[in-house]
Write a structure and sequence with these properties.
3-stranded antiparallel sheet; 235 residues; single chain; Rossmann fold; 16% strand; binds 2'-deoxycytidine-5'-monophosphate; 8 strands; alpha/beta
């Protein structure tokens, strides 16, 4: 049986979980440690919301137009001097999609079935044949149901809100913990109760609760699971 670097197969790794569980940082670091590509699917929903906002389209009124918009959009993740950015039809939209306004709108936008249909297809295309860490809400359940490693990364509500507050502060935005908790609850409830692809762990996902764990510990745990699966896939 061959072992070692040469014989390792590149796998698909799905990392799902609610907002503020630290998914993005963890997924990015896991991908870097493995030498895999990293795909942030939330960024794609945010990009649709950003474009809808810019064109004055409203969820509930202009759903067809938003779906058409999503269908025409071309997504590309490119390395820049400041890390990986999402380019939309050639435009770097990384900063524009990270505002709280776009974040809030991305939740109702992501509940539109036609938008999901289009983005799931684009995500499967981006995933290619493996060697990818894909992060989102429905990766293990819908987008890549055959992913060899599935992680559902979560944390307590308070822990998630505190992390979110820190992230926003880094962007120069001050928000009270109460306000963040209220927005987070609303988003969680909408993401978990929507008819299409609700947020839930896949049956074969490993549920990882990150309260009290250092980021490095979470990354190491996931990398170890992928390494074990890589070895297993070669046997
Ligand atoms: O992870 P995020 O905050 O960037 O995601 C933005 C929104 O998109 C959030 O409301 C959840 C939604 N989303 C989704 O429905 N499915 C995904 N695979 C990724 C994100």
């Amino acid at each position: 049986m061959p072992t070692g670097e040469q014989s390792r197969r590149s796998l698909a790794v799905a990392i799902d979980g609610p907002a503020g569980a630290g998914k993005s940082t963890v997924a990015r670091e896991v991908a870097a440690a493995l030498g895999y590509a990293y795909i942030d699917t939330g960024a794609m929903y945010r990009a649709v919301a950003y474009r809808a906002l810019r064109e004055g389209l409203q969820v509930g009124q202009d759903d067809q137009a938003i779906a058409d918009l999503a269908r025409r959009m071309r997504f590309e993740f490119r390395q820049t001097g400041e890390g990986q950015h999402l380019f939309l039809d050639g435009e770097d939209v990384e900063a524009a999609i990270r505002t709280p306004e776009v974040g809030n709108l991305s939740s109702p936008v992501s509940a539109l079935p036609q938008v999901r249909e289009r983005l799931v297809a684009a995500q499967r295309e981006l995933a290619g044949s493996g060697g990818v860490v894909m992060e989102g809400r429905d990766i293990g359940t819908v987008v890549l149901p055959h992913a060899e490693v599935k992680i559902f990364l979560t944390a307590s509500e308070e822990e998630r809100a505190r992390r979110r507050q820190g992230q926003l502060r880094d962007q120069g935005l001050e928000r009270s913990l109460e306000q963040i908790l209220a927005e987070q609850r609303e988003r969680d409830a909408r993401d978990s109760s929507r008819a299409v692809a609700p947020l839930r762990p896949a049956q074969d996902a490993f549920v990882l609760v990150s309260d009290g764990l250092l980021r490095e510990q979470v990354v190491a745990e996931i990398v170890a699971r992928v390494r074990a699966a890589e070895e297993g896939a070669c046997q």
